[in-house]
Specification:
Number of helices: 4
Radius of gyration: 16 Å
Strand order of the largest sheet: 2-3-4
Helix content: 25-40%
Order of helices and strands: EEEHEHHHE
Distance between the termini: 21 Å
Structural class: alpha+beta
Length: 114
């Protein structure tokens, strides 16, 4: 039987190929192009080495907390405190955002701390 984990008790961590670049104008998620085809296009076609994804304030706040030090529950509480009504409904939005980010391979999960 497969053990189930409580998502609220797990901690998201950005993978090594992803970096959050925060400037005064906007926050950009830099995703390294790692596949063999992307590396070829970077080298021979002079394509950029990173995908640049512009983030809004909520996305920036969530991904800046993906260090493995905070659980999903703690991130949700902080979003609710910081953004109030603008973040509502906090938990469903946060979970969906984390699912999308995980599907792209930009985060990994650290299991529940006992």
């Amino acid at each position: 039987m497969k053990k189930r984990h409580n998502l609220l008790a797990m901690s998201p961590v950005l993978t090594a190929t992803v970096r959050l670049d925060r400037s005064e104008e906007a926050s950009i998620l830099l995703v390294e192009r790692k596949s063999w085809l992307e590396r070829l296009s970077v080298r021979f076609l002079k394509q950029p080495a990173y995908f640049r994804i512009r983030l809004d304030d909520l996305g920036t706040q969530v991904l800046s907390q993906c260090t493995g030090n905070q659980t999903v529950q703690e991130i949700a509480e902080e979003l609710g405190t910081r953004f109030g009504e603008a973040a509502e409904p906090v938990l469903p939005r946060l979970v969906k955002f984390l699912q999308i980010v995980e599907e792209h391979g930009w985060i990994r999960w650290e299991k529940e701390k006992r």
